[in-house]
């Protein structure tokens, strides 16, 4: 989103500035922003506090233990930075590393920027990179993110500003995972002195410094005055927890807040009709689905899972619950992610087949199950639609609604029967979907909340992450996704479209495809 330039209403001053700019442009081929006096008049307004209102609080702030995007959103590219970052098109760009090269298939070398300090004064260098990844990869740390980087065999310090990642095997999407929140580089001083405190007090190199966390209320960050790159325009950002949907929007309208990045689709008409709010929309990398806990009865029987898959009219959910925001999903991978295939088809809506399968499984007289969802309005609505649809085949669904943090805790412990879930791909690569959602090693906190385990699927996922030929990788992902559908592990529902409401007096923010709120260039009028 381009920054809106500040307008000056005083007519005389406006004319004088206009004349000055015309003279400057006539005398030079350089852009007007190179003129210092023009910069002072037309540059973005500095200062102010950006207030972002959100449905739920974060769960934790340590990148090695964060397992949900709403929590990662607080620190990603704000408090923490990685060696590389994705741009708006999800192409990888330098960040803490200024350049890199692949020495051979399993050795990646990164040249680091010099003169950067962490927020606690510790120097950023090759040793800091090594300490971050050594902690992440140490089994004693018990990080749920460890498996994402399990291909790294060794982190080797070449010199103070050069580090090598030695891999067990060639791994094509390495840069994409390094660019995600999991690839954040953490202060070695904080890691040495009190690593447990990082869950509540993050310490990185980013443009914002952690200020405070009032649990259940708000998290605040302040501008890093010593930031190595371009400093933010704003002084502070506050992420405020406001559970009521209507209240969040009212705060945008009254000016109490500037951005609401968790907007129910039911509020789109209200936002578009407002003269004080605007609507931001962008396609996402995430997919929403109904997932089965395949270790729990009755969902340990594939016939029951197939029956429910046949009984859900997915198109009705997209239209009735989501007002056609987003698109109908066919697999647990967005069309924007590398590895997606439109050839894999989910189960047709077929109540007769569903009843037949339930009868074969011994549930001709029906069964009772519990459906878990977080407290997002659309997900509660979706749960109610699914409850109604499954009545048609004799399945009695009890809906269990939990606050987001409690919901995450429950699915990470495998205490649910069925759950409405989503996977916000943070890298744009299929490995992030497949390894985290379906590999046996990812059961629990890393992302496999289906508790699914299939040796053939594990092997195909491992082969795909090692394969360097793009066509072969795509074929492997198509085959493995078909196998997951055959096993009826989940029911794909929706490819995300991210929406946000924002005050018309704020500009310069954007949501990337992974749903991260980017605020480096925010201007508050």
Q: In short, what is this structure?
A:
This protein has 525 residues and is of the alpha+beta class. It has helices spanning 11-27, 36-42, 69-75, 126-137, 174-178, 188-193, 245-254, 268-273, 302-311, 314-320, 351-360, 377-391, 404-413, 430-438, 455-466, 470-486; strands at 49-54, 84-86, 92-94, 97-104, 107-112, 152-159, 162-167, 208-214, 218-223, 236-241, 259-260, 277-292, 327-328, 367-374, 395-402, 418-423, 490-503, 506-507, 510-511, 517-518, 523-524.
Describe this structure in words.
The two termini are 16 Å apart. The relative contact order is 0.16. It is globular, with a radius of gyration of 25 Å. The strands form five sheets. Strands 1, 8, 9, 10, 11, 12, 13, 14, 15, 16 and 17 form an eleven-stranded mixed sheet that branches. The protein has a four-stranded antiparallel sheet with strand order 4-5-7-6, covered by helices on one side. The protein is an alpha+beta fold and 525 residues long. α9 packs antiparallel against α11, α14 (430-438) packs antiparallel against α15 (455-466) and α15 (455-466) runs antiparallel to α16. The chain has 16 helices and 21 strands.
List keywords for this structure.
4-stranded antiparallel β-sheet, 11-stranded mixed β-sheet, 30% helix, 23% strand, 525 residues, alpha+beta, globular, 16 helices, 21 strands
């Amino acid at each position: 989103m381009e920054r809106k330039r500040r307008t000056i209403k005083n007519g005389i001053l406006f004319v004088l500035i206009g004349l000055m700019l015309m003279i400057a442009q006539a005398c030079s081929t350089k852009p007007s922003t190179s003129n210092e006096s023009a910069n002072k008049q037309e540059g973005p307004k500095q200062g102010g506090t950006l207030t972002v209102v959100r449905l739920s609080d974060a769960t934790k702030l340590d990148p090695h233990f964060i397992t949900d995007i709403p929590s990662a959103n607080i620190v990603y590219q704000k408090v923490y930075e990685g060696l590389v970052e994705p741009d708006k098109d999800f192409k990888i760009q330098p960040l803490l590393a200024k350049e890199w090269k692949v020495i051979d298939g399993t050795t990646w070398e990164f040249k680091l920027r010099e003169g950067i300090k962490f927020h606690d004064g510790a120097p950023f260098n090759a040793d800091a990179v090594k300490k971050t990844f050594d902690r992440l990869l140490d089994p004693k740390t018990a990080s749920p993110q460890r498996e994402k980087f399990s291909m790294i065999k060794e982190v080797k310090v070449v010199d103070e500003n050069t580090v090598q990642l030695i891999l067990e095997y060639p791994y094509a999407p390495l840069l994409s995972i390094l660019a995600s929140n999991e690839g954040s580089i953490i202060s070695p001083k904080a890691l040495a002195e009190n690593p447990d405190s990082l869950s509540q007090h993050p310490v990185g190199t980013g443009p914002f410094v952690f200020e405070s966390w009032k649990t259940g209320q708000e998290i605040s960050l302040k501008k890093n005055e010593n930031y190595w790159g371009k400093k933010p325009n704003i002084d502070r950002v506050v992420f405020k927890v406001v559970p009521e949907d209507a209240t969040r929007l009212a705060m945008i309208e009254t000016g109490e807040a500037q951005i609401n990045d968790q907007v129910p689709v039911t509020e789109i008409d209200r936002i578009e009709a407002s003269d004080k709010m605007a609507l931001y929309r962008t396609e996402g990398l995430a997919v929403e689905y109904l997932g089965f806990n395949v270790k729990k009865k009755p969902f340990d029987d594939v016939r029951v899972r197939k029956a429910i898959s046949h009984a859900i009219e997915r198109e009705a959910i997209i239209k009735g619950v989501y007002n056609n925001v987003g698109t109908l999903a066919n697999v647990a991978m967005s069309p924007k992610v590398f590895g997606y295939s439109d050839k894999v088809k989910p189960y047709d809506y077929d109540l007769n087949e569903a009843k037949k399968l339930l009868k074969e499984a011994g549930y001709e007289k029906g069964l009772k199950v519990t459906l878990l969802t977080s407290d997002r309005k659309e997900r509660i609505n979706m749960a109610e639609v699914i409850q109604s649809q499954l009545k048609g085949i004799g399945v009695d669904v009890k809906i269990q609604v939990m606050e987001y943090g409690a919901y995450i805790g429950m699915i990470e412990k495998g205490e649910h029967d069925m759950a409405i879930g989503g996977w916000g791909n943070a890298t744009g690569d299929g490995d992030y979907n497949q390894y985290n959602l379906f590999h046996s090693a990812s059961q629990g906190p890393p992302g496999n909340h289906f508790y699914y385990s299939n040796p053939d699927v594990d092997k195909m996922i491992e082969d795909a992450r090692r394969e360097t030929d793009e066509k072969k990788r795509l074929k492997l992902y198509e085959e493995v996704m078909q196998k997951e559908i055959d096993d009826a592990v989940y029911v794909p529902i929706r490819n995300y479209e991210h929406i946000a409401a924002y005050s018309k007096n704020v500009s310069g923010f954007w949501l990337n495809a992974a749903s991260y709120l980017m605020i480096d260039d925010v201007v508050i009028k």
